[in-house]
Amino acid sequence: MDIRSRKNELREYYSHKRKMLSSDEKECLDKEIANRFVNMSAFKSSNQILLYSSTSDEISTDTIFDYSLKMGKACFFPKCYDQSKMSFFRVYERDELISDAYNIKAPVNEKEIYSPLPSDIIIVPAMSYDSKGFRLGYGKGFYDRFLPDFMGTKIGLCYSDFISVSLPRGRYDVSVDIIVTEKKYICL
Fold first, then answer.
1. Count of structural domains, the chain
2. Distance in Å from the first CA to the final CA of the chain
3. Gap between the Cα atoms of 120 and 24, Å rounded
4. pLDDT in tens, 61-105
5. pLDDT tens profile 131-148
6. Closest to 14 in 3D by CA, of 58, 53, 79, 52
């Protein structure tokens, strides 16, 4: 089986596994992950956070966004263009995010584009991570093209039961530096 087919098979598996979580269980796990994230020294020392606007199936980033704003951190969300480019723009409140062509909430305002600093953090969305920090993404490649030039700390949020020993990966896949679960930090 080729890598693309194997990844698609795993996406179906993890999508089904996510749907099996009750809303109460998901909410509890998401809160535990968010609390663990905002207590990280990397978060405390950063001034800029790159987030994703979570769908109902993904680990929620809402608490992290709200807390980041409260702490005076600049928050940026991605906007995807055609099939290849993704840029991040500053967002001050949730109503500045509207559904885009991919049915993902993206910044409506493109005035303040992200300008990188070494202390920045990016939260990378994924369906699963493996023990080496490689992720099972959604198959569009936006983050795979963005991450090689990112100079800050790459962080994955993942339920502990969704971490694999190993995931299939291609030559363009980039690992994260830290995985945050509801139980622990995994520093890579």
1. 1
2. 29
3. 32
4. 999 999 999 999 999 999 988 767 899 999 999 999 998 776 789
5. 999 999 988 889 999 999
6. 58
